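User: Can you predict the 3D structure for this chain?
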Amino acid sequence: VIPSKILLDNLIRNAFQHTHEGEVTIYQRGNRVRISNRETDSDTMLNEELGFGLGLDLSRKLAERFQWSYRNERSKNGHDAEIEFH
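Assistant: Here is the predicted structure, written as structure tokens:
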């Protein structure tokens, strides 16, 4: 299995799993991919920790191992992950 596929599968699955009422956006240009999720139900955001933990830790470790640029940030109403494959 290709490590980049594992990383992207994980980030996309996490985004959809933790967006109950909102949207997931996947943007790709060249070697850069950004995956964002936005929750529109503020009650859901308040009642859930989003569960971004082990999966995102695995993503970070894969990116480090292959020296890919990786950024993952929680925002007010969602999450943004960006990876650049070198």
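The chain is about 40% helix and 35% strand. The beta strands are 22-29, 32-39, 69-75, 78-84.
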